[in-house]
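W.,

You were right to be curious about this one. When I first looked at the sequence I had no strong expectations either way, so I just let the prediction run and decided to look at it fresh. Below is the sequence, 279 residues in total, followed by the output.
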Amino acid sequence: MKQISILGCGWLGFPLAKSLLQKGYSINGSTTSSEKISVLEHAGVVPFLIELSDVNIKGEMDSFLENSEILIIDIPPKLRGDSSDPSIGLSKTFVEKIQNLIPFIEKSSVKKVLFVSSTSVYADENATLTEEYIPNPDTESGKQLLEAERLLQSNEKFETAVIRFGGLIGSDRHPIKFLSGKTNIENPDAPINLIHQEDCIGIIEKIIREAQNESFSWNETFNAVAPFHPTRKKYYTQKAIEFNLPLPHFNESKPSIGKLIQSEKVERVLGYSFPKNNL
């Protein structure tokens, strides 16, 4: 039985942990909520109360990483109100968390890191984007995620695979619930770049399985969105109808800007097929 540590057992990390447990892995899982410790324990996850800040790390990080060969980092940037020192500002808080984490990884048994990133590292430039495209993020979270990717992948003590997920959806999460009834929504003709929770888990598990293959290069970056890109207006209007919600209304008075994310590398290199390819 191989052990994996999952830093961040939230919306994606917790169901991922349960799926990996079913496949015979032993899982250490972290949470920042003391109330969730019993939930993780009940599911069979070895729970750890760990909190990263831009100043230090609270919790038993050494024990959390002990005996794990693979670490999955699934923590969002959460830039607002994230700094314990207001004078520091918010421009580097997430990057500093990763910087504080790296020495613990270096001295641990972890040889492979899987970093959950986002397609927000790509700006809206009306282009079709593959992993070969040099990111030029136009949001603070995108900038910090990109810098965190580079910090991890440049470290010679361990290998890092990066997965850039698109917008996350699942049975309990869909952007139409936020957009429903809103007016003056921009970029109606921009394509959607979404991915279902089931595919997020499937791709991560595929990478973990490929780690056993000596010819597989772990130190890779993958875009991960469903190969389904209708326009925002068409898609969200249809979803509002399906969910019986008030229709969203779009601003069509100016040109749309967006991006189309290609995930062909996931299919070609990992041999992965999207079961949720029509969202």
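Here's what jumped out at me. The longest strand covers residues 112-118. And, maybe more interesting for your project: Residues 80-90 have pLDDT under 50 and may be disordered.

Coffee later to discuss?

I.
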